[in-house]
């Protein structure tokens, strides 16, 4: 209920993780249809980049304003910080405070003074600015580094190189918010270079009890995690897509024209293959480089037919091998019998 500086930067990180989830699972999903030339109806979804920009913008973001107040000479406290936020973000639709509400003639007793509220992707969160300046300066870390540098243990000294008095810089040390922002930026760069897979954990109840399911709690989590938009995009689009070459290699045994060898192009082979399977036209879409299948049911049907065909081919291979083995064994026995008979007749 009482959110301070720590919860603010944690929620900032959550917002950035939600942004990468949106970009990689929703935005790129729709952009792939455009790249492949697939006709479909776009699904509207909320892009939380406006919230991330509200927090991390280098000139007018909340973290930038906080750093500016921490480094500004003169009397500095949380009230001046909140006043500056109210001036710069008065018209921002995802920011509000008591002063901005009064300017808009909004009566809201749930928002106390010395607080501001951000409309996050997952809902509204109220932050108390008390302690923001002190925690952002993070003087404890500086003193701790200097203390650890005086330790005799070599490992402790190596863990706190900032405490070396010979390396003391005339520049002001980076604030906690700046360091956290830099760490989040490195994390995002690392994640963008990967191909992530998401596992979304849903908490069924607040008491951690077995066999207890709270629908309201689960529904709230589904909404806040962005799963509703994800499902809408998936249902409006195609559940399965694969490059023509890989698709043809896996399913070419289902059509006599493509099995065992197809001499034409991969796309033509996929079209010939699927034309012989009589799937509804609305279930399939042919992109520039990929085949798209709308419903999982069609894919399951393909896999079932493939398993049946593989069983038939295995039976054929076994039959041919057994026939070859029996013929070879018979020919050896016949050859042996002829040799034995010839020697026997000669002896007699």
From TrEMBL:
Domain Myosin motor: 1-307
Pfam families for this protein: Myosin_head
SUPFAM superfamilies according to UniProt: P-loop containing nucleoside triphosphate hydrolases
PROSITE patterns associated with the record: IQ, MYOSIN_MOTOR
CDD domains: IQCD
InterPro entries: IQ_motif_EF-hand-BS, Kinesin_motor_dom_sf, Myosin_head_motor_dom-like, P-loop_NTPase
Entry keyword Repeat: yes
A GO term from the CC aspect: myosin complex
GO biological process, one term: actin filament-based movement
Keywords, sorted A to Z: Actin-binding, ATP-binding, Calmodulin-binding, Motor protein, Myosin, Nucleotide-binding, Repeat
Gene Ontology terms for molecular function: actin filament binding; ATP binding; calmodulin binding; microfilament motor activity
Region (Actin-binding): 184-206
Family: Belongs to the TRAFAC class myosin-kinesin ATPase superfamily. Myosin family.
Name the UniProt record assigns to this protein: Unconventional myosin-Ia
Source organism of the structure: Notiomystis cincta
Gene: Myo1a
